[in-house]
Specification:
FAD binding; single chain; globular; six-stranded parallel beta sheet; TIM Barrel; alpha/beta; 2 domains
Length: 380
């Protein structure tokens, strides 16, 4: 539990943090109700280095045994989870802030990518809130493409967060009530700052080795309170390493209500910046735990209400990516599913869209020994 709690929180002050992104004693053991996913617990930095070495050996083994091999890593194995919790909360608060602004400009209920804020109104709102003077925010909105259209969408907004927030300022969030940017935590110790940097360095080492060996590196999805940070850090790696082909794969859990929004926003970013989009689609491994945690602690359940809704979400996300492959040939997907209908759906859509297996744009993943009655016919 202490590995998820910062020094500042231990001194008090954790109550300002959002319930979902705080460490909770009852859910300290993240293995509860999870049978199909490996769980790592943080002991110290040396252990994270050991995990990194193990992952490096896996990448080497995959590179040595097959062309275009895969290796999977988990970010909770590579650093102290406290950073993932905090960074997730920051990203979610900025994202909400954008949606609140959009609602104030009469755009509530639109799809994530359809929300476009008028740059001038946004600048006024930022000035009124005391977050940035008009002169400051004007400076933010003069990028190559940013603000040229006079509007700012969610991707422009995310790029603002990137350019404005160096690591030390990463954990500033807008407080709408008092109208200013506030640190999420009152202070960071030097060691916490180092832990954060080391996690990013370990990811970098693994990505470089994967690129060198021609191995595709899949970053596993984890609990919803870690996931915004994991996805964002994976996206940063994709921007750097997926220039010529998809080396880094992000994982989307389709039992999450926000899965489709996340997929479409990230695909659009890859289009705008010209890199190869790589993804593994799963239904999700933490449902019981996620539901129980949300109910007990008192925040909205992040999981789709029914099995059918999750199925629908999976096929919707998958179809969107298959269409992207058809149009640009710059997207890649691993259909990680033991569901026969999903496998048949994918094969049918590949035939309809003219995506041939030899292109290696679509892969299928089943866990060893599971659903051989699907795996073998699929291999044929």
């Amino acid at each position: 539990l202490s590995s998820c709690t910062s020094a500042a929180e231990k001194m008090g002050g954790a109550e300002q943090r959002e319930k979902q992104y705080r460490a909770h004693r009852g859910f300290g053991d993240r293995r509860a109700g999870v049978i199909s996913a490996r769980t790592y617990f943080y002991t110290d930095e040396a252990k994270c280095d050991q995990h990194m070495e193990t992952f490096l050996r896996c990448i080497d083994a995959s590179g040595g045994s097959s062309e275009d091999g895969f290796a999977a890593i988990k970010l909770t194995a590579l650093g102290r989870p406290q950073f993932l919790l905090q960074f997730s909360e920051v990203l979610v608060k900025w994202w909400r802030f954008f949606h609140q602004m959009a609602a104030e400009q009469g755009q509530a209920g639109r799809a994530a990518l359809e929300m476009k804020l008028e740059a001038e109104k946004l600048q006024e709102a930022l000035a009124n809130l005391g977050i940035a003077t008009k002169a400051e925010s004007q400076h933010w909105f003069t990028g190559e493409n940013l603000g040229m259209s006079g509007t700012v969408d969610l991707l422009d907004w995310n790029s603002l967060i990137d350019s404005r927030t160096k690591l030390s300022k990463l954990l500033l969030v807008p407080n709408m009530k008092v109208g200013q940017l506030e640190p999420l935590l009152s202070r960071f110790t030097e060691e916490e700052d180092l832990q954060m940097k080391r996690m990013l360095q370990r990811m970098d080492v693994l990505a470089k080795r994967a690129a060198e060996k021609g191995v595709r590196l899949m970053v596993d999805a984890e609990q919803s309170y870690f996931q915004p940070a994991i996805s964002r850090l994976t996206l940063e790696m994709q921007r750097r390493f997926n220039r010529d082909r998809a080396i880094i794969f992000n994982t989307y859990q389709c039992y999450l209500k926000e899965a489709y929004d996340n997929v479409t926003v990230d695909v659009e970013l890859s289009r705008r910046e010209g890199w190869h989009f790589g993804t593994k689609l799963v239904r999700g491994a933490y449902m019981e735990q996620e539901r129980e945690r949300a109910a007990q602690i008192g925040y909205e359940d992040p999981i789709n209400p029914t099995y059918e809704k999750t199925n629908e979400m999976y096929h919707r996300c998958l179809d969107y990516i298959l269409e992207e492959i058809k149009h640009s040939r710059k997207a890649n997907v691993m259909v990680a599913s033991h569901n026969e209908d999903t496998v048949k759906f994918t094969l049918r859509r590949m035939a309809e869209l003219g995506i041939h297996p030899s292109e290696k744009k679509v892969c299928f993943g089943q866990l060893l020994g599971m659903c051989d009655q699907i795996t073998f016919p699929l291999g044929e």
